C-alpha cells in the first residue's frame, strides 16, 4: 500500500506563505503529533519512507521512519505546489498585493492550465511517485510525506472527482491518503496499517 501523508504542523511566526522557502521546521506540537503517529505505526509493515525535500516534510518523515530503522528518501515529486512560490515569504494577508490576477484565476478555477504549474501536473507527479514506489515495494507499506495541495490534487485527480472541487477539500496535518492500490481515498492510516 502506498500512502501520502501531509507533513506535521509547522512553526510559522507571522503567518507567512512558506511555499518552497527553506528553514520552516515543525512546531513542538507538530513533533509531538508525528511521534504519536510513529508510535501507533511502530508495528506496521513499513518498507520505505519518502519525503518532499522541504524541512517540514523531511522532519515528519524521519520521525515516522525512526521506529523502523529506515532512511528517508527525498523525492522532488513530493514537493509543494509551485503555484505558491511567487508569494513565499509574504504574510497571507498581503498576498493580494502581488499578482492579484493569478489569485482570481485560482479562486475561479484552481485547475486552470494558465497557472505556472497547473494543479493537474502536480497531481500527476505525486501519482508518478506512487506508481514508482508501488513497483519498488510491492509488499508492505510505503509512506510519502508531502504537502496539502499536492496530496489533495492527487486524491481528486486519481479518484476521478475532478480538480474543480479542490477548494472544498481540506487535509489536516498528518492526514493520509491511500494512493495505491487505487483509486485514491482518504484513510485512517493506523487502522489500515493493521490490515497490510
Structural features, described:
There is one protein chain. With 196 residues, the chain is an alpha/beta fold. The chain has one domain: Phosphoglycerate mutase-like (Rossmann fold, 3-Layer(aba) Sandwich). Helix content is 35%, strand content 14%. It contains six helices and six strands. A six-stranded mixed β-sheet has the order 3-2-4-1-5-6, sandwiched between helices. Helix 1 runs parallel beside helix 2 and helix 4 packs across helix 5. The longest helix is centred in the middle third of the chain and has 18 residues. The chain is globular, with a radius of gyration of 16 Å. The model has no long low-confidence stretch (mean pLDDT 93).
Features:
single chain, 196 residues, alpha/beta, Rossmann fold, six-stranded mixed beta sheet, 14% strand, globular
State the name of the first-level CATH class: Alpha Beta
Strand order of the largest sheet: 3-2-4-1-5-6
- What level of helicity do the residues show? 25-40%
Helix/strand order, N-terminal first: EHEHEHHEHEEH
Instruction: Report the CATH architecture.
Output: 3-Layer(aba) Sandwich
Structural class determined from secondary elements: alpha/beta
The CATH topology name reads: Rossmann fold
Q: Span between N and C termini?
A: 7 Å
Number of strands: 6
Number of self-contained structural domains:
1
Topology:
Blueprint: E1 2-6, H1 28-40, E2 46-51, H2 55-65, E3 72-74, H3 100-108, H4 119-136, E4 141-146, H5 148-159, E5 176-180, E6 185-187, H6 189-193
Parallel strand pairs: 1-4, 2-3, 2-4
Antiparallel strand pairs: 1-5, 5-6
Amino acid at each position: 500500500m502506498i500512502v501520502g501523508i501531509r507533513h506535521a504542523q509547522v512553526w510559522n511566526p507571522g503567518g507567512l506563505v512558506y511555499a518552497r522557502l527553506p528553514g520552516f521546521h515543525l512546531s513542538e506540537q507538530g513533533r509531538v503529533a508525528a511521534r504519536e503517529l510513529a508510535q501507533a505505526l511502530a508495528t506496521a509493515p513499513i518498507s520505505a519512507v519518502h519525503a518532499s525535500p522541504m524541512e517540514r516534510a523531511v522532519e515528519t518523515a524521519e520521525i515516522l521512519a525512526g521506529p523502523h530503522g529506515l532512511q528517508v528518501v527525498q523525492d522532488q515529486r513530493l514537493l509543494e505546489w509551485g503555484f505558491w512560490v511567487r508569494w513565499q515569504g509574504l504574510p497571507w494577508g498581503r498576498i493580494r498585493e502581488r499578482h492579484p490576477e493569478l489569485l482570481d484565476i485560482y479562486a475561479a478555477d484552481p485547475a486552470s492550465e494558465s497557472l505556472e504549474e497547473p494543479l493537474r501536473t502536480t497531481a500527476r507527479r505525486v501519482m508518478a511517485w506512487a506508481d514508482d514506489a508501488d513497483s519498488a515495494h510491492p509488499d508492505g507499506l510505503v509512506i510519502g510525506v508531502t504537502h496539502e495541495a499536492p496530496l489533495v490534487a492527487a486524491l481528486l485527480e486519481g479518484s476521478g472527482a475532478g480538480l474543480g472541487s479542490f477548494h472544498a477539500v481540506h487535509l489536516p496535518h498528518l492526514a493520509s491518503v491511500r494512493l495505491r492500490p487505487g483509486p485514491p481515498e482518504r484513510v485512517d492510516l493506523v487502522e489500515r496499517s493493521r490490515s497490510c
